[in-house]
Every structure is written in C-alpha cells, then in structure tokens.
C-alpha cells in the first residue's frame, strides 16, 4: 500500500503525475524554491486542478508537519479488493493506526526544527527504537460491498476521498512493531524498493485510475533507481518465501540459476517452473467475476467531479486553532505567489470550500473577499480527523528540558529526581546548563525550545532569566554570559510557551515565569516545590495534551 500519512492525494488519474511534479518543482531558471510549494507554478496548478484541494488542506494542517514519524497514522490512499478462496470480493481501504497518538508541530516550530537539526525525525525514531521504546501501529481495513461503490455520495475509487469512519468503521487485523534499527542504513533502508504491485494472495486491485498508474510507475522508478531489474534480489527486498521463476541475467544478478530452460511451458525441465494460479502453488488470482466494458476514453468518470464537499468536511471537523493553522499556512504560501491572477484563482477555489477560509486568506494577500457560494456548503463533520485536540496515548521518547545552572549544583541534581519520577512513562529529562559538567546533558548554546516537548526551570536557575542576562543591558558588569547567545534560557522558555508546550518551574524557578510574563494560572503551566511524583504527574498530563491551543491567536 502507499502508506502516506495523509489519506488522499492531489490527483485522480496517473496521467497527471508529470504535471503535478513539474508544477511543484523549483523554477527552471533559478532552482528556487527547493522542496517547497510557496511559489506561482505550484499554486497555479492547485487552483486549476481542484482535485488537489482536499490533500492541500490536510498538508496545510498539522498533518503536514508531524512531531515525529512515530506520531502519524498511515493510509493506503486507494481502494483495494479482498478476494476469498471461493472468489467473493469486498472493497477495502487500508489504515495504519498509530498507538502513540497523533502529535504535530506548529509552523514556526517546524521551521526552527528543520534549521536546527535536519535529522530530527530520523534521530527521534532511531533513538526511540534504540532505547527499546518500539513504536506500534495497528493495521485495519474499512470493508465495503462492491455494490456500495457510489453509496456514500462519492466514488470509492476516487483517491481524493476518504470514507468517514462513522459510515464504515475500521476493522483491526493486526499490529506492526518497529523493534530493530538498521545495522547498515544504506543496505537496509536506502535500497528499499516499494512497489504497490507487490501484494499477497487475497488482495487485488481496483479500477482506481491513479492506482493503475502507480502499479506501473513505481516499478519503472525502481528499474531506473537501481540501474537494472535485479533489485528484488537485494537482501532487504528479497521475498521471505522461496521463489522459483524464469528471471535470468541482467545487471546486478546475484544468483547462479542452474535450470537452463528459463521459459514456460517446457518439457526439458519437467514443465518447471510453472505459473502459480488459484489452484496450483497458491498464486495470485483476481476477482473471478469482475468484468469491465465501455468505450476507451481519456476522461475522468463523472462520479469523480465533486472536489469541494470533502475538503469542506475536513474544514468543518477541525478545532478553531487548527483552522487558524491552515489559514496561516495558506497566507504564508500564497503571499509568496507573485501573480495576482493565481492569487485570485486560489481564493475562488477556497471559497467553494468555505467563505470563512477564503475571506481570511484573501485579507492577507490583497485579494477582495468573495461573497459566499451556498451551493457548495454543508455542515457535516467527522470525528478524529485533526492533528490536534486529542490526547497522546503514550509518552515514550518525549523529552523534558530542565533549565539549570552550573553555579547552582542543586539545580542540576533536580534532573535525576525528575527523571526518576518520569521514567515509568518513558519520558527523558535533558539537563541544560551554561557549560558541560557532571550530570549536564547539553549546553544552552546547543539548545532550543524545539528540542523539547516540555520545559522546566530548575530551582536555583532563576538568575539566568533576569534582565541582566541580556547584552541589550549595559555590558559592563551586566552578568550576560558569553557561553551562549544573549537571553537564550529565557528564549527557550518563551518559545516553549509560544509553541503551546508544557512549561513549568520548581521552587524559585517560578521567578523565570514572571520574567517571561507567563502566568502560572494558564493551562499547561505548572509549578512545584520539588521534582517529586506530584509535580511529575502534572508534567505527564501536560505532555498528553501536547499542545495547549488556547495560546494561539485566532482571527476574530
């Protein structure tokens, strides 16, 4: 299966793949921007190809900037078939349900993370597995009858649509656990070859035109990427079951076949190998009663034409803060679009999803606010579709930064006590101080709020947060340190609060909250006398909430 962390895609037919890729690529004359869509050609395509709108909303929401690889769900995107031994079929959509819960960054937090540590996501996954905190996902399917293809008001073969779980619940089939890191990243990860045409007995394809194209394009990609056809012989790609076939020679051949009769049918080798089928060798077989007829046309089915109902369903289902994140992301993207024609076309499409969304984006990019178009609107919602507002089920691998001072050894010692209180939840405490010393994990010069899921100011470290810690104050005798950028401890605390994280203070460390004008009455702000179990309980509860959304301003 495709396995994206967004359940829909930009296009409905594989013939548009080259156009999509060309549109989002950098400009041909200057190769700007790299790996980004905040430019004219991308939004020109999006505004002219409304099938992209649903995926755009998911990407502009928290799903586009997850906290880690461990905190996402996965989706097959396409509708597949399941086929029983007696030929009965069902339509299914595959889901990977993360058992860690969903968690995402906010936009500026994601930008800072990418700048400070480009390997953040890979490092997080590696360290979690290395520590024995194995991430898990349940595999499930939504099961539907063949005759239900158009039952829900859209075509089940349309890869830009979801099936709300209120209509068809997910049936859990099993669980995947990532319990080992690669021994050699190139051999075991870089050389992996994914191919949606690789399916097991009992799984079959549908007539989804994007899926049909992917069956070709992924294989074609691997042929070019690996320089030949024998990539399936690499250890990481090799099937678990023994394979007997007529494949021979080619670049990168790793086997020495002993059968000189590499063809079927044959008599020279007693007819072997023979094509496996439904009855011989338990091979692949398609739905036996499936038929297809009609005129061959280069056109989309009329059942694929509604590109606005489901984006509105997504929009309606979000909490206000996540709606604001989408608005802000689209303001950022489209403010980089130079063409007024493209900006206007974007607002036209957004208005077919929500007049509220279109008006808020238009205000920021100099486009006249459109009038509502009620012919497109509905008030339907679906549950658990956002990236925010749901508590985490596991805290494994989350990090708490304890801001301490080497001049106050007792502040550093609080790290061990807090770690002891949080270790049962799988939470790591990172002790930060001015310089490396015993029990100090990293320095302020190498630290930022984006590295932590919660920040705690230690009792005794409050002196690092006063006015004299800034070089903007009189330098002579000011107490500003040259060991780290001016004001870095307070910056970490303020950014953590601004990014919606849990912030806390022990003892006199609460003076730091006052220096940052952070009220201890706010949700997700905690104080305690010591780093005992009661204080740790507050921290764990804050981490489960993950983002305190009341800290983010929402358009009025």
Automatic annotation (TrEMBL):
CDD domains in UniProt: GATase1_catalase (cd03132)
MF (Gene Ontology): catalase activity; heme binding; metal ion binding
Listed Pfam families: Catalase, Catalase-rel, Catalase_C
InterPro entries: Catalase, Catalase_clade2, Catalase_clade2_helical, Catalase_core, Catalase_haem_BS, Catalase_immune_responsive, Catalase_large_C, Catalase_sf
Gene Ontology biological-process entries: hydrogen peroxide catabolic process; response to oxidative stress
SMART domains in UniProt: Catalase
Keywords carried by this UniProt record: Heme, Hydrogen peroxide, Iron, Metal-binding, Oxidoreductase, Peroxidase
Domain Catalase core: 1-272
GO CC annotation, single: cytosol
Cofactors required: heme
EC annotation from Swiss-Prot or TrEMBL: 1.11.1.6
Family affiliation: Belongs to the catalase family.
Protein name: catalase
């Amino acid at each position: 299966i495709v396995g994206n962390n967004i359940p829909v895609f930009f296009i409905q037919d594989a013939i548009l793949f080259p156009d999509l890729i060309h549109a989002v690529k950098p400009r041909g004359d200057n190769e700007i921007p790299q790996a980004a869509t905040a430019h004219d050609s991308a939004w020109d395509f999006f505004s002219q190809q409304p099938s992209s709108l649903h995926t755009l909303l998911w990407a502009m929401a928290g799903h586009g900037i997850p906290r880690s690889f461990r905190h996402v769900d996965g989706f097959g995107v396409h509708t597949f078939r399941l086929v029983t031994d007696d030929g009965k079929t069902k339509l299914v959509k595959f889901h990977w349900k993360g058992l860690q819960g969903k968690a995402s960054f906010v936009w500026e937090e994601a930008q800072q993370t990418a700048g400070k540590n480009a390997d953040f996501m890979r490092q997080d996954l590696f360290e979690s597995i290395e520590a024995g905190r194995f991430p898990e996902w349940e595999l499930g399917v939504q099961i539907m009858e063949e005759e239900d293809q158009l039952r829900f008001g859209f075509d089940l073969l349309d890869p830009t649509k979801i099936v709300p779980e209120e209509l068809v619940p997910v049936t859990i089939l099993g669980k995947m656990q990532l319990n080992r890191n690669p021994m050699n990243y190139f051999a075991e990860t870089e050389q992996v070859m994914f191919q949606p045409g690789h399916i097991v007995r009992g799984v079959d394809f549908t007539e989804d035109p994007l899926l049909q194209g992917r069956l070709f394009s992924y294989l074609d990609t691997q042929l070019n990427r690996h320089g030949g056809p024998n990539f399936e012989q690499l250890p990481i790609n090799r099937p678990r079951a023994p394979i007997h076939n007529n494949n021979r020679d080619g670049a990168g051949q790793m086997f020495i076949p002993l059968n000189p009769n590499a063809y079927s049918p044959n008599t020279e080798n007693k007819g072997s190998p023979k094509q496996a089928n439904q009855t011989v060798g338990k091979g692949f077989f398609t739905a036996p009663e499936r038929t297809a007829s009609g005129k061959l046309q280069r056109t989309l089915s009329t059942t694929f034409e509604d590109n606005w109902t489901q984006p509105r369903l997504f929009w309606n289902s979000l909490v206000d803060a996540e709606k604001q994140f989408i608005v802000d992301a689209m303001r950022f993207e489209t403010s980089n679009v130079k063409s007024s024609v493209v900006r206007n076309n974007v607002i036209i499409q957004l208005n077919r999803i929500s007049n509220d969304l279109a008006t808020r984006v238009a205000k920021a990019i100099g486009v006249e606010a459109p009038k509502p178009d009620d012919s497109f609107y509905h008030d339907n919602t679906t549950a658990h579709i956002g990236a925010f507002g749901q508590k985490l089920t596991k805290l494994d691998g989350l990090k708490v930064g304890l801001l301490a001072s080497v001049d106050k050894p007792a502040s550093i010692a609080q790290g061990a006590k807090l770690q002891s209180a949080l270790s049962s939840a799988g939470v790591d405490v990172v002790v930060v101080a001015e310089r490396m010393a015993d029990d100090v994990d990293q320095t302020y010069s190498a630290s930022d709020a984006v590295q932590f899921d919660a920040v705690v100011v230690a009792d005794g470290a409050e002196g690092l947060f006063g006015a004299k810690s800034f070089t903007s104050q009189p330098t002579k005798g000011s107490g500003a340190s040259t060991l780290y950028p001016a004001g870095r401890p307070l910056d970490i605390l303020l950014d953590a609060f601004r990014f919606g994280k849990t912030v806390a203070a022990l003892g006199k460390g609460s003076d730091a909250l006052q220096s940052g004008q952070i009220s201890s009455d706010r949700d997700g702000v905690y104080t305690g006398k010591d780093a005992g179990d009661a204080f740790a309980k507050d921290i764990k509860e804050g981490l489960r909430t993950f983002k305190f959304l009341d800290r983010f301003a929402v358009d009025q």
